[in-house]
TrEMBL record, chains A, B:
InterPro entries, sorted: HTH_LacI, LacI/GalR-like_sensor, Lambda_DNA-bd_dom_sf, Peripla_BP_I
Keyword terms: DNA-binding, Transcription, Transcription regulation
Name this polypeptide is given: LacI family transcriptional regulator
The HTH lacI-type domain, residue ranges: 3-57
Native species: Frondihabitans sucicola
Amino acid sequence: MPATMHDVAALARVSVKTVSNYFNGYPYMRAETRARIERAVDELGYRLNVTARSLRRGSTGMISLIVPELDQAYFAELAQEVIDVAATFGLTVLVETTSGDRDRELEALSGLHRQLIDGAIFDPLALGPSDAPQLGGGLPLVILGERQFEGLADHVLIADEEVAHRAVSHLVEIGRRRILLLGAGSPGTHTAILRRRGSEAALAEAGLPVDGDLVVSTDGWTRDAGAAATARALDDGRRFDAVFGFNDALALGAQWVLLERGLAVPGDVAVIGVDDTRDARFAHPTLTTMSPGRAQIARRAVELLVSRIREPETENGFASVTADFELIVRDSTVAPGTLNSTP
Amino acid sequence: MPATMHDVAALARVSVKTVSNYFNGYPYMRAETRARIERAVDELGYRLNVTARSLRRGSTGMISLIVPELDQAYFAELAQEVIDVAATFGLTVLVETTSGDRDRELEALSGLHRQLIDGAIFDPLALGPSDAPQLGGGLPLVILGERQFEGLADHVLIADEEVAHRAVSHLVEIGRRRILLLGAGSPGTHTAILRRRGSEAALAEAGLPVDGDLVVSTDGWTRDAGAAATARALDDGRRFDAVFGFNDALALGAQWVLLERGLAVPGDVAVIGVDDTRDARFAHPTLTTMSPGRAQIARRAVELLVSRIREPETENGFASVTADFELIVRDSTVAPGTLNSTP
DNA sequence: TTGTAAGCGTTATCAA
DNA sequence: TTGATAACGCTTACAA
């Protein structure tokens, strides 16, 4: 049975209030009192009981990060960043995975863990605007990526249309004309719709047609799904000289199949993704990608959440910040040694 | 202000104890009482306060998983498995990352989060046997991978020597003679030492010499480190026809550099790893690897931890279970179409 | 600057 | 089968 604050107080010959003050950084305390407390704490090996504190305070110092799955590089890397940033605020992160399942997303927001956390950072996959009423009921919430809930919670957004536009423009600039849009297609998440819209705008600006045959759905945004869809497109005899994977996983799956089929990347088909995961750097050839500023996303998300937790009553609207993005050109679009033919 | 158990009790016209019984699956209850409680719960939207329960029970229903970093595929995939298995036991997982830093490993075991958890699953990187006294002081603990603490906690082990032996034997069977051991070398974790030992045993059995030049240290077990060390070995003019990366990340880093330098895999150099991460399946060429039975590891770890939490006083020694492993042959050692020349 | 005492929302003891 | 009541260990008015 571990020592309690009462034990410390008794040994230090002060009241529990004073010991509590000590642990809460209350400044007005005689140096000698402080020293006595410190000695007692050492002697007893005392550690503050966080559960009791939480019960009394009504807050836990924990936030959850709700993502589809950890074994996708993007989410694993995001989780690591969020954990690190949260730690600088003294917050502990509970990582919840949902497999993109609607019920599990709702459960993460309003289930048993609900009262274990002071707020949540949520990367929704299945939930849509019609679920808005169930969005945690007063739980401080920051939504990542999706803009469907704007006005209902704080958001950290990716400029989906612009990112897609830039990616497709890059492919056009290196001379590609028939670009497979991998991850678009019905029904499609809101993110998918926006990235498709941006892609088609870039094609239109370049005076290129949008070929419905080259707008391809995938069953999820994983390497498996990207590989399968690309294989199908090749088997169908569709012709394309570039692939825009709506995330890195899709692009890597596509690239894998292309190489497997003996096609040259980027010689025959150029490939570009989105996310700048570590996997992109270590693909062979290395994958050109749009970096969404993951570190910035994690930082802003935690900051927004912390201020929402501290001042829940700021009813004058919710914040939406959009992260910066950047084109990272690698070998999957511009072969090394090739002089970039960009005008 | 959310409803409490008292509110429910009042509305259902029973005592709080009865409501508590209801939530704890106490079987002796009249159907009508149960129905009244259920109606009151619904009406009030009542949810059990986990913090209060934890305070009263002295346990939280949370366990932590302590790993070096989530953005390594192996750990991300392991975390996902552990979270899923733990959920079947009604346990919540707190994922702690340490960067393999000694202080952070100790902090995860005995810091503030210590009392937030009922036990921990720990994949140590920096801590050694000399830290044993600090191993959580009575915290139920299951250690993964490392056998250095055997006798001090429960273990779920990988058969490091046998795994390495099998990997090297496979390379020998396909005719390789000069095998780079990537990840061995001083100082080296205990795991590294065992895998090196197993590798050298396999070489010895095959009548092959152990060339010190081919035993290569890396700065961590990441793709970056694997790439850097392999590049160095090539630059030094060391000759080898195979690489055994002590994990998939190292092997993938090596493979990446080899391809970058224009060498053929497996034509010039065969590559094999350990872990069977998803990355291995999507490398190009696909990476041959030793599967350590990750699902089994996660399941056994959680099971051991749960029984240790339930019966902390089983002082008659600690359990050590060793996971099964399996060789997964892919294209990085046996090119597709090549008839396997194994005797 | 420090002390007293009343909760926070459960669960456990014991009795009925 | 259910009820009254005392903890669990901390924070926080309020008092001194």
